[in-house]
Batch of 3 targets.
Target 1
Amino acid sequence: MKDIVIIGAGYGGLRALEYLAKEKNFKITLIDKNPYHYMQTEAYGYIAGRFDISDIAIDLNSFVKGLGDNVSFIKDKAIKIDKEKQILTLQNQTIAFDYAIIAVGAQTNFFSFIKGAKEYTHGVKNIQRAFEFRQAFEKRLYLKLEEKKLHRNGDLHIAIAGAGLSGVEIAAEMAHTLKKYEKILSKESITLKISLIDAAKTILPGMDSYIINKTEQRLKNLGIQIYTNAFIQEIKERSIYFKDGTKVDFDFIIYTAGIKAAKFIQEIQTEKNNIEQIIPDEYLHLQGSENIFCIGDCTQIKSQEKLLPPTAQTAEKSAQYVAKAIIAKTKNKSYPIFKAKIDGYFVALGGNYAIGMLYEKIKVEGYLAYLLKKLITRVYRHGLEIKVNAGYKKR
């Protein structure tokens, strides 16, 4: 019986767990500080009020029980890992392992050169911060319904710092939602507007020009003000100050300007990149250990020297590879270096509209792209729910 620990219950951690749980000669322990799996790719809909919390969270205890008796879940915080002794230290206990998978994900990178970013913004990397924003936003709308005076003579301005995938999707969904609120709350008495801000030359930096151009057109049609080449110097309680001296006032601000590896990674002595992600070898081993693997957003993942984006798809592909590698190792079989391609990606752009590209060739937009994106999400969630329901019946 081999003892395997998986540290982190994000997209990568759960995919690795599902593969490994089929091997009955493995005793697998999933560890996470939260009792739920957070479907962060759907955060845009939750923040905008389109989805409920039940649409973005999965109970881990029930999920694990649904996988079999060789799998267990520990709600605890990982502190450090000893690669020589093969011991994982948690806040409340220690666990010995034969194999470990580090899948702790990433956290919001509140850049130190942006004064006030952490104090005055809402992030989306965890449910708590997303929940706090949604509460604050809905409270403001409630006050409007009560005909109480809003900030700045009725204006309601949402700023989003960061025009990557998360920022763009949130901006589009919020704009689409606000247009509906505008009809209800009277256009004459309240101005609802959104600003999307990024220091890069374009929105969605690094993506295909087709996606960038179509997305920018959609955002402008939704009435979103786009600021690019905009370097934020300071954020105060109700204002953003740029390096060029300009100022933008807001009521709420969401911060999606960057990520860095989770705090647990800081305790690991190994090579890292400039956002503290682990740089593994070509087999996704933690360098210096063939029994510890690294996957997902906490890892700088390359395939044939090409960097893969820190997305759910990358996390799942790296997880699947690592699970197969561990199975091969226990059977004294060799396994190839990690190789993967991104099958495609979709950008949700408010309501029943999306933009997508499949296999770097097929371009999809509008309602069809939205349906394809929803299908992928539903298939993923349905797979989780089958295990959750099976596990719930055992409790």
Target 2
Amino acid sequence: MPDERMNVAFKLNWVYGADGPFTTPCTPEGRLINILREGKVWCSQPENECHALVDTDEVLPADALPCMDLRGYRELRFGGGTYHSGPHRGKGISIHKAGVGKLAFLTSRDHEMPEEERIIIACFRIDRIETNEETGEDTVVAGDPPLGLRVPTDRFDDAPRFWDFRASAANRVWGSGLFRYIPDDEAAAMWAAVEEVCDATHVTVLRDLEAMRLEEQYTEGQRTTRLVQHYERNPDLRSAAVAIHGTRCQVCGMTFAEVYGEIGEGFIEVHHRKPVAEYEGEVTVDPAADMASICPNCHRVLHHARGGPLTVEELQAILEARR
């Protein structure tokens, strides 16, 4: 039976932050745009903190989260919206096709952008889906903030245009509702486009962590946060490992440049000799002793053994015995 889980894209209200979009809650001028000019649904609700300040010059604290739109960009957590009228008022709208492991995209546009110029401002792999206790419906998807990608707010002009990736977008109108389901091929292209405008070191680290997530068969609730934090303290860790071990696979001996030519130059995966799941507390990783350069095929086989991951030396011995 085919996997019916899908990727999902969300429509966020533009947050007119004091230091750029989505940096703080809306400025007084931004509140006027969203509440009076645009009539955004949540912005216009009496219970919203911003609505209470619409006729003032007061500002909310920079770390306040008065809306899901700002929370979405900061925390990589967003939902299908809430019913604001009728018998279901206050209840979340179901996102029943989204699945853990699929991708989520946050899109937005300011009041001067036409709909066809809507941009992708962030993306993340769905770590968990939160269920509305009253209805039992899946209403919010969330990622692990260190494992997502956010377009830097000073690079929003370079952010990918959402509709450029939609094969079915002959008529570029979002319409009602806060989300759209996205097929895998379009989602993969969107993710790659966001990578192009994000910090290169973070993208490289994220690719390694995504590979480890697959190897360790990470499921809902498991985290690689500590390792991410270590990477963030020492962004040269991966580069140091490759500088020490080179780009030749330490198991089978292949290099991508020899097989694929120029397009494969410098490509290799980094393997952590100690499984990520076994790390406890603060971690100090020695790129010489704790890491290895491994091609993707050998990398997958290392983690495929039923009794747990093989060591580099064990897999080397298996290959030698077969030659």
Target 3
Amino acid sequence: MPKFYYVARNHAGVKETGIEEALTQEDAVVKIQAKGLIVINVIPEGVELFSDNAIKIKSKSKHGRVTSEDLMLFCRQLSTLIGAGVTILMSLEIIAKQVASRKLYDISMDLKKNMESGLSFHEALALHPKIFSGLWINLVESGEASGNLGVVLSRLAAYLEKDAEFKKKIISALIYPMILTIAGFGALIFLSLKIVPTFAEIFKSFDIALPFLTQVLIGISDFLKKYVLMIFLLIGGVIFVFREFIKTKTGRKSFEKFKFKLPIFGDFFLALNIERFSSGMSTLLESGVPILYSLEISERSVDNLIMADIIRKIKNDVREGKPMRDSFEHSGFFEPMVIQMVSIGEEIGELPQMFKRINSFYQEQCDTFLTRFVSMFEPFVLVFIGGIIGVMVIGMFLPIFELSKING
């Protein structure tokens, strides 16, 4: 018989939760009311409940890893259930039965087991550091301490959703230029390895001296045919060595400095890092996490060693009682606008709101850059690839023109 999770109140106004077996949701409501309870919410087993109370049938497909989308959905469902009055233990049980990740199912059940043995929710999360970051653990601890776990989880879910949406924008903006570039160079390689050699065989029967451009193209084609495998192995070797190099602290810092100094793109990478930092800080501070802990979490969370060093210096200065504004200014990393907004936020006690505004500004700046980049990159690649193909076509037909002049 189907199971229904319910939230209800007794005649004294005390909230109660439980599980009721019934054929339909209406039958479950009748049974719950027969117990003298006032029904608040009834949730069928095997459905997904979202923040807008939309119901979706549980997916049967499972995968082994835990994706960012899995965590985002887990957080949103958890905040919705807790906000609806469902206990944390029952919420974990409900979510565990509908997650798309087998690993997240095991983790959810482990969280429930550890909490039943006496651990708090944030302590149970801390036992899975590879899945739940410091941001998760500290925000949950803040929510438990303040009694606003549902609100804090809702903010965390909003942060994860916003972050995921921003990453999708970046990926979507870069996919088309990458496809265009790969297709263009693929066409050039095809022409060099298949079309040019065919024309070269035809030209051998001509009793004329080949134009210089044609000779260069045939020479390039012969070189590629002879060493194409070696070229790809060399490229693969360079990529492998580069990836191993940037795994080291020195290599990674060198590459980060290189990215920040790039013309045009350097400003984008700078804006992207400030956007990530300000997004995390606004979420942490809004949820009641102290400024020092917020900076410490941000230091561990950012995916940039240079940025992490700057945040560590800011954290140490704040610990010594120095104004955050001075630390931001001395870093040489932040623009005057950011420094001024942080200064104002400190003075009026509105740092969370100021970081949110900084985040909105830089996110819009990154969006604008990506939009302009794609609109400019497309015609540039088309003209570049088209120009090379045009030169190849001219080079292949020049001997034919020369032959027609001789015969004429």
